[in-house]
Amino acid sequence: MIIALDAMGGDFAPASTVEGAIFAAKESKHKILLVGVEKILVGEFLKYKGRYDLKSLNIEIVNATEFITMGEHPAKAVRQKKDSSLSICARLVADGKADAFVSMGNSGAAMSAALFYLRRIEGVLRPAISSVFPNTNGHCIIADMGANVDCRSEYLLQFGIMASLFCEKVVGVENPRVGLVSIGEESTKGNELTLAAFELFKKADVNFIGNIEGRDIPAGKVDVAVCDGFVGNVILKLGEGLTEMMLKLIRKEFKQHPITWASLPFLWLAIRDLRKRVDYNEFGGAPLLGVEGVCIIGHGSSNGKAVKNAIFAGAETAKHNIAAGIREAILKYK
User: Fold this and answer.
1) Is 44 in contact with 14 (CB distance < 8 Å)?
2) Which has the closest alpha carbon to 6: 42, 38, 34?
């Protein structure tokens, strides 16, 4: 697979993106197109000269004269900065020169670039950022994570169809359970949006189990949780905050109890595995479902490990040709 990486995108770019590209190239046979300001990237790349055999890595630097910052207006920046690292990444996929593109930068701009260069899949009303959320059984896909803050019921239905397909084909969950995020399990509870969406889901060709509450997501009640982007983004940010809080509280309580602190070496493996399970860096990035091609949007504060995993997520999504599956599923529904 050939993955185009927006090397200028992210809070810690290009240090984190170059490091992630090197990690990915060392651990796989994927070709990484490192897109950004060539002079900057070469300098960052050569920092690893003493640690790795750089000539053996399947990495190619693609020059970009511009880049899009976190604070810029997404659509305006994509229109005006045609030679930005992000725009070039999207064009590489659109022109068939890359199988996927990955960005840890301005998520709105990444979505705008995907829509501008890759276009929506026929029949798809709005694309959705579908993120992985840890739960007691493993993971749950949340769609939408923030691409669409104002939605219609038809959008939510398509989010569920697309995320269900992704969950089945890429994550490997057979007949994934789909739930609609609301304020109660009863079909009569919710706002106008969820009440209308509930009726559509009842007739759709997905394994719809009904309404779910926020607590049902970490409890593992569903494999796909459907909501508008406003709710989805709040859920994810709250989840990140709760995870950090719990880990800090665990460390604090250990220090306050000397006997428990002494047992830390015996508990370390369990604590390490717990942290790994809830660390967003392990998931890398979230696919933008509904566009003709693969776009992976990562967390702005991603480190090298997260960038590496986002590259792997892009390669895995491209391997399953999710766009073709979504096109077929949407046309079948219509």
Assistant:
1) yes
2) 34
What would the DSSP string read from start to end of 176-238? -EEEEE-SSSSTT-S-HHHHHHHHHHHHSSSEEEEEE-GGGTTTT--SEEE--HHHHHHHHHH
Digit-coded pLDDT (tens) for 189-235: 999 999 999 999 999 989 999 999 999 999 999 999 999 999 999 99
The domain total for the chain is 2
Residue 120 DSSP symbol: B
What is the chain's Cα-based Rg? 20
Q: Is residue 113 part of a domain?
A: yes
Looking at residue 187, its amino acid is S
Q: Same domain, yes or no, for 144 and 118?
A: no
User: For every residue of 79-100, which 3-state class applies, written as one string?
Assistant: HHCCCEHHHHHHHHHHCCCCCE
Distance CA 127, CA 133 (A): 19
Per-residue exposure over 230-245, b if at least 16 CB sit within 10 Å of its own CB, e if not? ebbbebbeebbeebee
Tokens 């064009």 locate to 91
What predicted TM-score, i.e. pTM, was given to this entire model?
Answer: 0.89
Residue 194 lies in domain? 127-280
Alpha-carbon span 10 to 35, nearest angstrom:
13
Q: Classify 285 as helix, strand or coil.
A: strand
CA 302 – CA 285 distance, rounded (Å): 9
Tokens of 124: 């798809």
Residues 6+ apart with CB under 8 A from 273: none
Give the strand pairing for 128-135 and 138-143: antiparallel
